[in-house]
Write a structure and sequence with these properties.
This protein has about 260 residues and is mainly α. The protein has helices spanning about 1-10, 20-45, 55-85, 90-105, 110-140, 150-180, 195-205, 215-255. It has eight helices and no strands. α3 packs across α4, α5 (about 110-140) packs antiparallel against α6 and α6 (about 150-180) packs across α7. The longest helix has about 40 residues, at about 215-255.
């Protein structure tokens, strides 16, 4: 990791570390909104179908459904971001035009299967761990509320756990989305998820599928902590508002 950062700083300067930032920022809001809305809607539909001790099935399925819904926005943004990061000084809109010119609109969805192979289990694991641990936190709080710090800690654990198990798919996704770009090792034509995974293992061993694990764990610890603590805060606020409204309606009916 240190050698890669040093090389990037030498070649591109400190701003090179932020290549692809505009693409990530532009897609962050719609992806987050679609992700949480899809998760909550699916969970509400599935939860009544399972007993209390099997609610984790609804959580996992809802997480997977949220990943499928967001993949239609996430995949193009990820392709554009990867192109920006590999090319160095290309802006997001330039990268999008380059991809479309080279491969058509379908080029923006290069690696879509790999995205789903990574994001579906990642979301399922992430929400499974989060919901399980938060239930334990609420049980130990005895009605006093979970608080921000427990949500931050649980979110970080959930995010890093999911990242640990899905790093091989992330490696394959990155290879598929950057293959054939000038200056990238292993150029050529993308061969699919399974074939690309076999190529990595053949060239680098199983450890090659886990390249970048440490920075990815760091990213998802912080991302999971921020995302889930914000998610829990907003959800609690909305639930509190609904409870207050129901109480007001009940009082009005009583009068």
């Amino acid at each position: 990791v240190g050698a890669v950062v040093a090389t990037m700083l030498k070649q591109r300067g400190p701003f090179g570390l932020y290549s692809g930032l505009s693409a990530s920022l532009a897609s962050a809001a719609p992806i987050s909104a679609l992700y949480t809305a899809s998760y909550e809607a699916t969970k509400l539909k599935l939860a009544p179908m399972f007993s209390e001790d099997r609610q984790w099935v609804a959580h996992c399925a809802a997480g997977g459904a949220a990943s499928v819904a967001t993949s239609f926005v996430y995949t193009p943004s990820e392709c554009i971001k990867q192109r920006c990061q590999v090319s160095g000084n290309v802006k997001a809109w330039q990268a999008a035009r380059m991809i479309v010119r080279e491969s058509g609109v379908g080029g923006l969805y290069k690696g879509w299967t790999a995205v789903l192979c990574r994001n579906i289990p990642q979301s399922a694991i992430k929400f499974f761990v989060f919901e399980k641990l938060m239930r334990a936190v609420y049980a130990s709080a005895a009605g006093r509320g979970a608080g921000t710090l427990p949500a931050l800690a649980v979110g970080g654990i959930a995010g890093s756990t999911a990242a640990m198990f899905t790093t091989p798919f992330d490696t394959v996704k990155t290879r598929l989305q950057t293959v054939g770009i000038a200056g990238v090792d292993g150029g050529g034509i993308a061969r699919g998820v399974a074939a690309t995974a076999r190529d990595v293992v053949a060239a680098e061993g199983v450890g090659g599928l886990y390249r970048g694990l440490l920075p990815r764990l760091f990213i998802y610890v912080t991302q999971g902590a921020v995302f889930f603590s914000s998610y829990e805060l907003v959800r609690a606020s909305l639930l509190q508002r609904d409870w207050a409204r129901d109480e007001e309606e009940a009082e009005e009916d009583a009068r």
